[in-house]
Amino acid sequence: MNRLFISLVFIGIISCNSQIKKNPLPTRLAEEVKKETQGVWNAYQKYAWGYDVLLPLSKSAENWYDKPLYISPIDAYSTLKVMGLNEEAKRIERYVADSISFDKDIFVKVFEVNIRVLGGLLAMYQYTGNEKILAQAKDFGDRLLPAFSSPTGIPYYWVNLTTGAVKGDTINVAEAGTYTFEMGILSYYTQNPVYYQAGKKATMAVYERRSKLGLVGEVINVESGEWIDKTSHICACIDSYYEYMYKTWIMFGDPDIKAIWDKSISAVNKYLPEIKDSLLWYGRVNMETGESTSSVVTLYDAFFPAVLALSGDIDRAERYQKTWNWLWNHYGLEPMAYDYSENKITYPVYDLNPEIIESAFYLYHFTGKEIYRDMAKKYWEDIKKYCRTDEAFTAIENVETKKQSDYMATYFLAETLKYFYLVFSDDPEVNPTDYVLSTEAHNFKKSAFSLEEINKRLDIGSR
Ligand code: DMJ
Fold it and tell me: How many CA atoms lie within 13 Å of 458's alpha carbon, on the beta-carbon side?
């Protein structure tokens, strides 16, 4: 009896220990990521408060334009909230509500500020319900709208935030068609369909110019709608055009967008994949002939396993993530551009980009396989080893020499650190089933948007 009791206790201890030990890393790592984020945020406040970007090596700051748009804090807000860094987040909310104005006589890149500034403001409103924040988001959205006044509906590259003047009639497809998500949320919150309809018109205008094969090119003229570059791929310069089709569909249920996703993804999966040394790559082809034009890919492409997994194509997602994981491990960080036929780097920088971590997070969520957390763990160790500075993290000039350069992109706070935190957290509240994360990782809870209201406020079905 005693022996049985002792054995049961022993077994109990073993199984209890094994439960505790089963996954000791993730929570500890999530805490570590949170601590590092706090450190990075302190460095931003110390050296760059009021500016767009922190320069971690020179401990100074820089703006994108002549005047600041506060891009780092606005972009960082949702990450701070996800990690429960509420005091830090509150300071940003107060600052945005009471101390900043977007009435600035500067030309801004419509695509970049839409995903970072408008997306960040909308996430801030979602968390706070603060009407002053919504007013800022609406004001900013209104200042972007003149960009969509081209004959095709595809936005001009630049818009002046004060005058509404536009310039830049040549734009890549990511910059042309990545608006429906933020603009849709702005339409929902303001009950005015004008924003979503502008974003949707731009996406449809690109899609309607697809080739007979169902592919789009890389660069288009916003006035004539003519293709300037007919190279088709999923790399940087097109990437989020596809990402927003699927995410817009699951967020707003717009059947027009679902239809173009279905057609587009089948063309992409038909013409772009190429197997090299048993690894799956998505290369570059001519949009009209489908013939291969280049095997140079960009590290941005590592967003695609996440989108594939989200759309239910787990098999392709896992195969493609394996490719990116191979490349990461080959160099200990990813190069910005790589030629998979020649096995050589064509552009050696690593700018603290999030995509491969994002995909590890999605795949861990959808498959539950520990290998994806292990991948993320390796990326985290490498980033700490090579990109860490005494107070923050910085970009790498060359992934072979690992020489650091002096720049911490705003998406490092918005995306990279957030995805690390989420993949290392057990059962996180923010996950790809309950939330849709924008291309800049701003997270929005699906159940907070009612389908009936979406249809009304975004005017879905009006085309
Ligand atoms: C981010 O700013 C966005 O995810 C964008 O869509 C492309 N990638 C960068 C970060 O690499």
Answer: 29
Which DSSP category does 388 fall into?
B
**Is the residue at 363 inside a domain?**
yes
Q: How far does the centroid of ligand 1 lie from the alpha carbon of residue 6, in Å?
A: 57
Is pLDDT at 462 greater than 60 in this prediction? no
Range of the domain at 343: 2-457
C-alpha 250/C-alpha 263 separation (Å) is 16
Residue 79: inside a domain: yes
**Within-domain flag for 463:** no
Q: Quick one: which atom of ligand 1 is closest to the CA of 236? A: 7
Protein residue whose Cα sits closest to atom 10 of ligand 1: 353
**DSSP one-letter code for 299:** G
Pocket of ligand 1 (CB under 6 A): 115, 240, 300, 353-355, 411, 439-440
Q: What is the pLDDT of residues 355-388, one digit of tens each?
A: 999 999 999 999 999 999 999 999 999 999 999 9
CATH number at 114 reads 1.50.10.10
Query: Which ligand 1 atom sits nearest the alpha carbon of residue 299?
Result: 11
| CB-count burial class (<10 Å; 0-12, 13-18, 19+) for 225 | middle
Specify the number of domains making up the chain: 1
Q: Nearest C-alpha to atom 8 of ligand 1 is from which residue?
A: 300
Question: Is 445 inside any structural domain?
Answer: yes
Which residue's alpha carbon is at the smallest distance from atom 6 of ligand 1?
A: 439
Q: Which of 19-28, 113-122, 161-170, 356-365 has the lowest mean pLDDT?
A: 19-28
